[in-house]
Amino acid sequence: MPPLSREQFKFPFYLIVHPYNGYWELKYDRSRRSSLALSFVILFFLAVTNILQNEYSGFAVRIVNPDSINSIMEIVYVFVPVLFWCVANWSLTTLMDGEGKFAEIFASTCFAMIPLVLVNFPWIWLSNVISMQEAAFYRFSSHAAVLWSLYLLFVGNMTVHQFTPLKTVWTMLLTVVAMGFLAFLGLLFFSLVQQIVAFVATLYQEIDLRR
Asked: Helix axis angle, 102-112 relative to 35-56, nearest 10°?
């Protein structure tokens, strides 16, 4: 794969301020085929932002003890929900005549996460010089970033699948429900694997003791 050009790196910033045109180009413009590589770059920066935010935010806004942070788990907390969203959304929209491919759903989802990086990353350092009274600006900015990302996610889903606004909202709600179902199946699967491993280990110990 050729390296990403400067124009390709500029495209995400264009998309977040012109979401309808941006997502249309993302789906139909062949020059945007590198969007999958950019999607992983965005996810990487989101994970880094999430880790730095929990470890280096100022005491006025910190809600997590830095000593209890596991960087690997912080990465999992970013990648797994995105993966679950994409799998659930693709599964549902396939049954609802959606036009989006899995790669397009993944790219549109990752591009919708850009405000969470652009807004939260500077606040990691600014939060160390603000007072308790000024922490309200931090929380307002964080909430604004979430709303901005949700709006981009909505436009992305609507454009990728060519749905109406109402059908898009309905699909997104069903996707959240499907994510919960996937999480339940995942926990059930890992619990079953854990029990099988424990049974095999116990059986091996019993056989080993009878030798």
From this structure: 40
Residue 88 is assigned to a structural domain of this protein: yes
- Residue 91 sits in which domain range? 6-179
- Give the Cα separation of 26 and 101 in Å (integer): 12
In a domain? residue 172: yes
When divided into structural domains, the chain yields a total of: 1
Q: What letter would DSSP give residue 3?
A: P
CA-based nearest residue to 172, from 158, 188, 193: 158
Please give the average per-residue pLDDT across 142-154, as a whole number: 95
- Does 188 reside within a domain? no
Q: SS3 of 104, please?
A: helix
Query: Residue 29 carries which DSSP code?
Result: -
The confidence score (pLDDT) of residue 4 equals 61
Residue 45, pLDDT > 90, answer yes
**According to the model, what pLDDT value does residue 35 have?**
73
Q: What is the pLDDT of residue 155?
A: 95
Q: Would you say residue 184 lies in a domain?
A: no
What whole-number distance in Å separates Cα of residue 157 and Cα of residue 90? 10
pLDDT band at residue 124, thresholds of 50, 70 and 90?
confident
